[in-house]
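in:
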């Protein structure tokens, strides 16, 4: 890999991760003189004013995981960052370096990585008879290295300053490369009061202008177009695709069609930016369809105009530039530098030829900000020069960059026989738009695939003879074969076993499985699943992306089906996820993990049907495949209590616990049976014994403690509630997802019941919940509990932010959570009548949120409070009488007596 800046790092990341998944051993040699890999020139700047000109949400290293960079920022000191924010360029360099380092670490034992801090100055290819082409790379320090594959990630060509008069090029006051280390030191030191001329008005010029800005100094900028980059919108609109086919149009017709497209978007949205952004997906296609003459005309007449509108300034940068221009600290001219002469004090007198006539400026420094050269054929770079001279590379269209076949270089004879690739700026002539991360990361993935493809072991054949000796594959606990080796399968089985028993340690076991085999699709999918639905500390998007990559490379139908289920539950609507899960269980009824996902007991949110009939049907249909196993019996017990068949549910739960005393699902079903029967003393005692023994290693201990606390609230044993809070449910004893769902909801119930006196520690619960969980929850079930906690805290702005998120989320959040937030806002603002009406309308729709009836009951508790506060005591009495007909509750009986007196 020649070059370890952004492009080189992106290819290296893909190479390491793909090789680790496929177990392809090789040596990766990174050749780059920079002190740190990943930064290159673009991301080495230390000036915090230099920001990315693309929003953080579009700067991920991975084409299939667009939120990766945003999540990295959130975990590295910027927890509130959003996808539309523009991060510092130096931070992006740190992200690239960190992601590359992690990829190298993950590939240890498969990929050996070495780094040489020097430059490659030549590349000579030889082919032995009957062998593959081999490259000999000549290095600036005199060494040579050999390689079977070469990727040239050299970035843009350096500016050659051909525009500058010869006298200026030899002057010490001329800065030919402003990004070279220390290049601007003199202009920032004693001469920081002298004016500066920047030749070029693009994004480089804007960055350098901000760096050189000082009180009393004027930064002059000049270019032929005289245009500064346009600004990104503060509140950007989505890209608007062009409805007119543009491919193959002659340039005049293309120009007219694009103008019409922009006009339509302007009339609809009042902004041209969505129109330009909508052209991005088809830019390369349009460029490829143009003739050489049309391309040359476009570059000459419209290239500058396109660049200033396509490559825009971040809003904060535009604001800073605007202040500089309004205060006359920055002045821009359309024209060119005509001549320079030295002044007696050593500074320069520069003459500009502008449309308004000649202009002479006294400046201390002239800085070349014209950006990279377009014509690689004119390069002085010795490496590219050697490839062009020996015919291993040929110039691209308009002599911009080089000619390639999807990144693989064409030789002078048009062949692509050498295993030699490039990406990014050297493909400018072919693609026109090829210098931004979204384009480069896609090219990096393609190149990594091409580099490793000859070494990839053949897949099992579909119908012909065996491509390799077939070995017996390990199986999971349900008997399905796994596309992995025995050690990873053992770790996976342990993780699934802990999930099924609702015991701690599942994430650790699953992480070990994918560490042992990075290409194990089911391991990654299970991690994504428990992160999404169980609140486990998992980067869900990353795990899902890894699962989808791995399943494309080696998997059978069962594994592909399961990964599809997880992907649809994470990425799509609840209905789509349910459809995929039902289809999977129809095909593979013995899949215990999938069955656990389908049934809303304790670990997963389950199928989102309104009355539970679908989940019940799944449990009953899959019974023959499980032959009365303790796990299936546990789920059936839970479904029977949801039906109100409490005697049968209790018997089934006891049967499962007799077979597996640690079964959390069975104990959970029994807890519900006790609560719904009104057996509060027996329920509290049984939960206490289980928690002290078999439940000690449970992963949802807080939820069982919550169940015990519900009994204590019903018994009006407030001292026991406070004691249980302190010992089992307070932050520190519980954290993350369970703190929100169990601890937060218990506090609100206790407050509504008048069972909490003294300081109210809901703020401690909120401190344990990540901002994303509170304001952008992934599921309606989590959103319900976020709304409860925010209400308990009296956080009206937080509730409103949650409502805005819900209106943009899935259908259940839109139809249930958003109006629930409105009703809770009415509670906080003491609009009791409106709150009661809103909650009454919502009660029939609550089952769609998921979870159990006991969990959703908190909304009815809030409704009772609102009814009494609104003076609607008859309605409150009716609801309490209905509940007491179903189950005994000393607390409800006392409330009813108080309302009747």
């Amino acid at each position: 890999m020649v070059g370890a800046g952004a492009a080189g790092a992106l290819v290296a990341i893909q190479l390491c991760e793909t090789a680790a998944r496929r177990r392809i051993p090789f040596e990766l040699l990174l050749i780059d003189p920079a002190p740190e890999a990943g930064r290159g020139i673009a991301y080495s700047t230390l000036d915090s004013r230099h920001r990315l000109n693309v929003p953080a949400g579009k700067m991920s290293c991975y084409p299939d995981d667009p939120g990766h960079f945003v999540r990295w920022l959130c975990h590295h000191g910027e927890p509130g960052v959003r996808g539309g924010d523009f991060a510092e360029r130096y931070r992006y360099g740190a992200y690239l370096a960190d992601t590359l380092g992690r990829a190298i670490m993950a590939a240890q034992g498969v990929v050996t990585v070495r780094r040489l801090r020097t430059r490659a100055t030549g590349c000579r290819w030889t082919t032995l008879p009957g062998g593959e082409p081999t490259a000999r790379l000549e290095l600036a320090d005199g060494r040579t290295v050999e390689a079977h594959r070469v990727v040239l990630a050299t970035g843009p060509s350096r500016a050659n300053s051909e525009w500058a008069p010869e006298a200026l090029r030899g002057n010490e006051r001329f800065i030919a490369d402003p990004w070279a280390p220390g290049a601007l030191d003199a202009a920032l030191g004693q001469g920081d009061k002298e004016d500066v001329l920047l030749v070029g008005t693009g994004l480089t010029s804007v960055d350098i202008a901000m760096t050189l800005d000082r009180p009393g100094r004027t930064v002059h900028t000049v270019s032929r177009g005289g245009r500064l980059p346009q600004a990104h919108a503060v509140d950007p609109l989505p890209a608007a695709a062009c409805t007119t086919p543009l491919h193959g149009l002659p340039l005049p017709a293309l120009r007219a069609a694009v103008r019409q497209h922009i006009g339509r978007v302007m009339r609809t949205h009042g902004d041209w930016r969505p129109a330009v952004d909508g052209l991005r997906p088809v830019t390369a296609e349009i460029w490829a369809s143009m003739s050489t003459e049309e391309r040359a005309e476009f570059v000459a007449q419209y290239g500058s105009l396109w660049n200033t509108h396509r490559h825009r300034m971040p809003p904060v940068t535009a604001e800073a530039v605007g202040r500089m221009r309004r205060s006359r600290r920055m002045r821009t001219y359309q024209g060119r530098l005509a001549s320079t002469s030295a002044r007696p004090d050593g500074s320069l007198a520069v003459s500009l030829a502008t449309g308004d006539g000649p202009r002479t400026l006294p400046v201390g420094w002239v800085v070349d900000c014209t950006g990279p050269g377009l014509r690689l054929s004119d390069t002085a770079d010795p490496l590219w020069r050697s490839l062009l001279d020996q015919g291993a590379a040929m110039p691209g269209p308009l002599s911009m960059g080089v000619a390639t076949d999807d990144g693989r270089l064409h030789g002078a004879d048009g062949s692509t026989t050498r295993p030699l690739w490039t990406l990014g700026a050297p493909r400018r002539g072919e693609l026109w738009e090829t210098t931004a991360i979204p384009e480069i990361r896609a090219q990096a993935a393609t190149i990594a695939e091409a580099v490793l493809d000859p070494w990839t072991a053949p897949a099992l054949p579909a119908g012909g003879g065996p491509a390799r000796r077939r070995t017996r594959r390990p199986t999971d606990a349900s008997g399905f074969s796994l596309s992995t080796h025995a050690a990873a399968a053992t770790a996976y089985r342990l993780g699934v076993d802990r999930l099924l028993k609702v015991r701690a340690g599942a994430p650790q076991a699953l992480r070990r499985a994918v560490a042992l085999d990075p290409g194990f699709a089911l391991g990654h999918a299970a991690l994504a699943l428990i992160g999404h639905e169980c609140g486990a500390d998992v980067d869900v998007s990353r795990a899902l992306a890894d699962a989808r990559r791995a399943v494309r490379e080696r998997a059978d139908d069962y594994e592909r089906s399961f990964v599809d289920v997880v992907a649809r539950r994470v990425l799509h609507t609840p209905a789509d996820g349910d459809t995929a899960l039902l289809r999977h269980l129809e095909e593979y009824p013995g899949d215990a993990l999938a069955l656990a996902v389908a049934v809303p007991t304790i670990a997963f949110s389950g199928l989102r049907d309104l009355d539970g009939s679908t989940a019940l049907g799944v449990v009953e249909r899959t019974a023959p495949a499980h032959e009365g196993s303790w796990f299936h019996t546990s789920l059936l017990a839970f479904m029977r209590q949801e039906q109100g068949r409490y005697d049968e549910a209790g018997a089934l739960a006891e049967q499962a616990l007799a077979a597996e005393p640690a079964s959390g699902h069975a104990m959970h079903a029994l807890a519900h049976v006790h609560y719904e029967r009104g057996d509060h003393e027996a329920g509290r005692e049984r939960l206490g014994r289980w928690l002290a023994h078999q439940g000690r290693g449970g992963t949802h201990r807080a939820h069982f403690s919550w169940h015990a606390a519900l009994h204590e609230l019903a018994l009006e044993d407030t001292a026991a509630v406070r004691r249980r809070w302190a010992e089992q449910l307070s932050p520190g004893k519980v954290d993350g997802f369970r703190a929100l769902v169990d601890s937060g909801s218990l506090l609100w119930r206790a407050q509504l019941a008048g069972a909490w006196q003294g300081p109210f520690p809901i703020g401690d619960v909120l401190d344990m919940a990540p901002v994303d969980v509170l304001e952008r929850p992934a599921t309606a079930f989590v959103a319900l509990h976020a709304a409860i906690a925010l209400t308990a805290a009296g956080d009206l702005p937080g509730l409103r932010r949650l409502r805005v998120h819900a209106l943009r989320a899935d259908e259940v959040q839109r139809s249930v959570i958003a109006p629930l937030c409105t009703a809770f806002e009415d509670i906080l603002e003491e609009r009791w009548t409106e709150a009661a009406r809103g909650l009454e309308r919502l009660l029939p729709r609550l089952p769609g949120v998921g979870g159990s009836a006991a969990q959703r009951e908190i909304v009815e508790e809030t409704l009772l409070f609102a009814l009494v506060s609104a003076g609607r005591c008859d309605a409150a009495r009716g609801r309490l009488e209905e509940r007491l007909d179903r189950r005994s509750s000393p607390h409800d009986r006392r409330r009813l007596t108080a309302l009747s007196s």
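note: The longest strand covers residues 330-342.
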